[in-house]
Amino acid sequence: MEGGEIKKYDVIIIGGGPAGLTAGLYTSRSRLNTLLIEIGLLGGQMTTTEVIENYPGFPQGITGDELSRLMEEQTKRFGLEVVSQEAVEVKTDRETKVVKTDDTIYHCKTLIICTGNEWQKLGVPGEKEFTGKGVSYCATCDAAFFQDCQIIVVGGGDSALTEALYLTKFAKEITIIHRRDALRGTKIYQERVFANPKIKLLWNSVVQEIKGDSVVQSVLVKNLKTGEMGELETEGVFLFVGLSPRTQFLKGLMKLDGAGYIITDENCETSVKGIFAAGDCRKKLLRQVATAVGDGATAAFAAEKFLEARK
Ligand SMILES: Cc1cc2nc3c(=O)[nH]c(=O)nc-3n(C[C@H](O)[C@H](O)[C@H](O)COP(=O)(O)OP(=O)(O)OC[C@H]3O[C@@H](n4cnc5c(N)ncnc54)[C@H](O)[C@@H]3O)c2cc1C
């Protein structure tokens, strides 16, 4: 790492989703000099979620935007410093943790990684070419562009189902294409999907290609049981085929599992002493706002204990 001004903190948090904002709330409130580095919107994946119904304390549910805003406001009350940058490299130099962004080098005594997840690509011809021209990974962001349109949603988990349900407010008809013969999503979302007259399901099928001229016009679909190919006309393709952790920049520094999730102990400490991980980027059973917030609090408390032990 070369060049640039070096700024020093007690704690640096990478990622400002619910895990990072909670970690920041705890460390700032403990009067630790903390910096949170966030490349996108504070709130992370919550900002692309219409309604969150299973986060305790909001009996009628709460929009992802509003929950993000409230969490941000709470951290600001305790003076959390936030910069809008991308962490591109992390190194350790004896006891110091070194974080590099595009234009700044930061040093800290302890680091908390909260970089969450991002959507996996389907990897078919046309996907890259038509991204933003009919191909989308976020219904909450793009649904309004598809008023009265014929839409395809790919996937069978919670995100595919909730996003398809949200799209029914705008689109004329939605076809969910799923490679299995049963959905993976939570039962309550399945019930809502089956009951919605705007949603059709195409089972045992995969998208082979996304076609169009300047915008999406159709998809080529293969039936995995019969091998039969078909072409479906559509104006929009929403892809929810799984998430992967944003940990590529950490490869070689700490233990990751085969899918790239950070391996931690029960206190959220990684294989590198003094570096903690919280939220969706960590190997764990359940990836939700409630568990991200719990991780953030644990990692912050463990980081504080780590600093106290160093004194
Ligand atoms: C469509 C959808 C619907 C969902 N619905 C629900 C629901 O109803 N209930 C529920 O509990 N959960 C829901 N979830 C899951 C929930 O949003 C996540 O579990 C939670 O947001 C994870 O929080 P996090 O802080 O670990 O990560 P994220 O929310 O992913 O935040 C990570 C942040 O880190 C930033 N970042 C990543 N890499 C870097 C870097 N190198 N430098 C700087 N910043 C970086 C990202 O920009 C992002 O803002 C939903 C998710 C999706 C996608």
Features:
311 residues; alpha/beta; five-stranded parallel beta sheet; 23% helix; 30% strand; binds flavin-adenine dinucleotide
In a nutshell, what does this entry contain?
This protein is of the alpha/beta class and 311 residues long. 23% of the residues lie in helices and 30% in strands.
Kindly describe this structure.
This protein is of the alpha/beta class and 311 residues long. The chain is built from six helices and 19 strands. Strands 1, 2, 5, 6, 7, 8 and 19 form a seven-stranded mixed beta sheet that branches. α1 runs parallel beside α2 (64-77) and α4 (158-167) runs parallel beside α5 (187-195). The radius of gyration is 21 Å and the shape is elongated. The mean pLDDT is 95. Flavin-adenine dinucleotide is lined by residues 14-20, 37-40, 44-46, 48-49, 52-55, 86-87, 114-117, 159, 162-163, 246, 249, 279-280, 287-290, 292.
- The poorly predicted ranges are none
User: Rounded to an integer, what's the Rg over CA atoms?
Assistant: 21 Å
Strand elements, count: 19
In angstroms, what separates the terminal alpha carbons? 28 Å
The total of helices stands at 6
Largest sheet: 7 strands, mixed
* Assembly status: single chain
Share of helix, binned: 10-25%
Bound molecules: flavin-adenine dinucleotide
- Backbone structural class: alpha/beta
In one word, what is the shape? elongated
Average pLDDT number: 95
Topology order in helix (H) and strand (E) letters = EHEEEHEEEEEEHEHEHEEEEEEEH
Portion in strands: 25-35%
